Amino acid sequence: MLPYARQSVDESDVAAVAAAVSGDYLSTGPAVARFEADLAGWTGGHPAVAVTSGTAALHTAYAAAGVGPGQEVLTSPLTFVATAATAALLGARVVFADVDERTGCLDPAAAAAAVTDRTTVVTSVDYAGLPADMDALRAVADRAGALLLEDAAHSIGTVWRGRPVGSLADLTTLSFFATKNLTTAEGGAVVSTSPELFARAASFRNHGLVRDRGEQRWPDEGPWHQEVHAFGLNYRLPDVLCALGSSQLARLAGFVARRAEISARYDAALADVAEVRTPARPDDAQVAWHLYPARVPAEVRRALFEHLRAAGIGVQVNYIPAHWHPAFADLGYRRGECPVAEQWYREEISLPLFVGLTDDDVDRVCELVRGFFAA
Fold first, then answer.
1. What family classification does the UniProt entry report for this protein (predicted)?
2. What pLDDT, in 10s, does the model give residues 210-264?
3. Tens digit of each residue's pLDDT (9 = 90 or more) over 53-65
């Protein structure tokens, strides 16, 4: 079975993990600080807080933004449910705005129409690795007095209009799950252009503990003293996984380049298949492709999916619209609210894309797709 996605781990990664395991720290230690510093090299120098998953990164970012009851978080439905669920768990009302038909990213016009006086955060999702129009969304957020958050789980390594992901929003969340553009097995990070938001995120991922005597309410309790001023959680990413992350970051440029080659090869091989729409490629972005999201007529998508699976090709659909999940349906959300995103879902099929995919693998996938539509 050719998988839909797979991590790329080599001997340098194994050696980095082995060194961390045999060192003095398994949990928080020097590898955490090193990984966070290494991440800043990809985010325009903006600092990162490493956390246990991309979902934890979203939860931490929303908490840093002060999201809570009575507030609204505006986002795209064409995303994994965690983008919305983490805001809902903090008590906010999630408002879904439709996507751009060409890119699958949050449509600034739809976002502007959905803003209210309760909008606290506008959350864009870098679908497949491609950012939305972040300048337009910045204007939407600024007019609303809201923060701009970029869910960049797919897009570390992407550069948009000369600026790297991590420098485009007030808060940016990253994911390092096994199938992402680099991996720490499980893990994520929050990046911020605001020192205040960064400090809140760093505190939240460590229970909200205050150890600085100058900031404590009762600093004379004793040298062991620590305080919690605002509740947080244990979202600390351990040293051993951060060691893997730094090793992976050293190869990220190569990962991005190979993903671009594979994506371009798909484009060329499928260009004359009338039933297949290949991904949009805006001129203003150098995209670190996480997915290859092809679109086909909705009435044949399932048959093509099953045809490829039967031939040993791992394909996927990204994503079930977030507001379709029963948890949101039970809150009153209804199908039909975001017709562009919903039609995108009906047509989308993600073909295999990972660094170890060979040109022959790509050609085999494309031959099977072409054969399906020629039959």
1. Belongs to the DegT/DnrJ/EryC1 family.
2. 999 999 999 999 999 999 999 999 999 999 999 999 999 999 999 999 999 999 9
3. 999 999 999 999 9
Strand partners, 210: 227
* Same domain? 194 vs 234: yes
Query: What does the block give as tokens for 289?
Result: 């492709």
| E strand spans, 106-246 | 119-125, 147-151, 159-160, 163-164, 171-175, 188-192, 209-210, 227-228
pLDDT bracket for residue 79 (50, 70, 90):
very high
- Identify whether residues 245 and 256 lie together within a single domain: no
The string over 236-259, giving b where at least 16 C-beta atoms fall within 10 Å of a residue's C-beta and e elsewhere, is: bbbbbbbbbbbbbbebbeebbebb
5 part of a folded domain:
no
Q: What integer pLDDT is reported at residue 375 of this predicted model?
A: 83
Q: What is the mean pLDDT of residues 271-289?
A: 96
- Print the domain residue range for 83: 11-249
Q: Which residues contact 163 (CB under 8 A, 6 or more apart)?
A: 44
Going by C-alpha positions, the residue among 168, 110, 21 that lies closest to residue 341 is 110
Q: Record the pTM.
A: 0.97
Short-list 149, 143, 93, CA closest to 113: 143
d(CA 175, CA 197): 19
Looking at residue 126, its amino acid is: D
Residues 255 and 158 sit within 8 Å (Cβ to Cβ): no
- Catalytically active residues, by annotation: 180
What would the mean pLDDT of 302-312 be, rounded to a whole number?
A: 98
Backbone angles phi, psi at 117, to 5 degrees: -75, 0
